Structure formats: C-alpha cells, structure tokens
Amino acid sequence: MGKLIVPASIVFVIVNCIVALFRNRIDELHIDRTVILAGNCILYVLVLISLTLHYRAAKNEKPSVLVRSIMGSMLIKMLAIGIAVLVYVKITKEKRDIAAVASIMGLYLIYLLIEIKVALQLNKKQPANAGN
C-alpha cells in the first residue's frame, strides 16, 4: 500500500510548497490560499480513502469487486466534494473566490488521474483468470 500513495503524496507536498513559496504572488492575484490548501487536503484524504478501498478490492478474487470499489469511491468523493462546496458557499456567501475553486478543480483532475493510474496498476496485478 505504501508505494500506491507515493504519487498522491508527492502532488500534495508539491501543491503545499507552491502555495507557500508563491504566497505573495497568489495574494497579488487575490486568490485565497486557505481555500486552495483546504481543498488540497480534502482531495488528498479522499484519494487516500479511495486507494485504500481499491487496494482491499484488488486482493479479492472477483474482478467485479475492484469495479465496485472504484464506483463506490467515486460516489464517496462526489458526496464529500459536494458537501465541501455547500459549506464553502454557505460560509463565504458573496465573497466566493472563483480562481481558488478553479485551482481545486484542476487539482481534482490531477488526483483523479493518479487514482486511475494506481487502480489500473492494481488491476494488472490480478491474474487473468481471477474469479473463474
């Protein structure tokens, strides 16, 4: 499991470092760093949960279990992100930061690509006749 979380962990650390190193530039652009950092943390935790589900499912003999885990993790992520967006909208009311939200959407795509790559690697480790 340790090797599986390395790419997501690298992205998490890189994003946090970029926000810390370029905080003055980000502030000049009027982008809320707190929103980016909070969104990055939420996405990272969600990816860790998803990868844990995928890892457990990959150990099962039935290939359908991995597919169900991928679909289930997507549902969990959509619900968690939806709740986070509702909380953000409720807290900020009129002062929403569209640039920060767009940054988080970009991060979501990066984390999604990482998760898909890891899920495919787990699927390759399954024997071709698993479940038969």
Question: Secondary structure elements and their pairing?
Answer:
Blueprint: H1 6-21, H2 23-28, H3 33-58, H4 63-92, H5 98-124
Helix pairs in contact: 1-3, 3-4, 3-5
Overall outline: elongated
Radius of gyration: 17 Å
Distance between the termini: 26 Å
- Quickly give the structural class: mainly alpha
Overall helicity: over 70%
Tell me the major beta sheet: none
On the 0 to 100 scale, the average pLDDT is 87
Spans of 5+ residues with little confidence (pLDDT < 50)? none
Estimated share of beta-strand residues? under 5%
SSE succession: HHHHH
Q: Helix tally?
A: 5
| DSSP, total strands | 0
Number of domains: 1
Protein architecture, described:
The chain has 132 residues and is mainly α. The chain has one domain (6-124). The protein is 80% helix and 0% strand. It starts with 5 loop residues before the first helix and ends in an 8-residue tail after the last helix.
What are the defining features of this structure?
132 residues; mainly alpha; 80% helix
Question: What's the quick description here?
Answer:
This protein is an all-alpha fold and 132 residues long. The protein has helices at 6-21, 23-28, 33-58, 63-92, 98-124.
